[in-house]
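Record minuted for everyone:
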Amino acid sequence: MSSPGETAPSASASAAQRTQAQETGQQGGATRERRMESLGWLTESAVMPKKHKAIEGVGAASILDLKAQLYRTQEEARKPTAHDAAAAAAASGEFRRAKNRTAPAHPLGAKNSGVDARAHKDKLELKAVKDGSASYAALEKKVELYEKLSRGEIPDEEDKEKYCVDFFQKSFDHVYEPRQPERQSAIDSAEPENDNDDSMARTKPMGLGRTGTTIDRDEHKRFVREVHEEVSEARQKASTMKSRRQEQEAARREKLRQAYLKKRLEKLIAEKQASSAADNLPAS
């Protein structure tokens, strides 16, 4: 068996001889056809191809990563750097200079808009608080509301509100509160003024080391008269407050009754209209 290196020259020589013979034959006869064919050795080799070896770390995913890295590098190369931008600006004759900002002399000197107005308002409020005018106005409103509630002068709209204090009971207790300590203090304060011979005359011996005092009848009558007047005044106030409360309750009930009658009348009118409309419809 001949090697490819040995067969190649012989094949080329035979091919050259045939082409030469064909040229001579063509010259001899015009009717003879000219043909050429390759008599060289085929491009296939007798050596078997090597088995494909897998390379560690190289695959389809790694190829995509390489492509992405290549694209990123190209994009970074296309972006102009700061030095290039400065050079381009210098070449074009355009320069950008930083603005000169005047900093305040004091670090806390800068103020926002509206700070002075708010500071002035705060000063006025602080002055009102120190003078007591704001507190006095608030107390006046509270006193007015308290007196209004204690007298029972509550409108129908405010009657629905709930309060933690029963002003009716409080006013009743205030009218009937005992005033004995006040009278006792008045007596105690009046005793030093009447410290004379008359007080000595009102004392009488009750035994060893004890003395009893006798109360003047005129003074006792005066005390009884004062108590009677206070009781009568309290009863009159209680009766007036009770009558006022009853009047308010009656007015509220009358208002509710009128509203109920109005709704009832509207309902009856609507029913009557519906029945008349049903009667007017033709029978099917």
About this structure: The chain has ten helices and two strands.
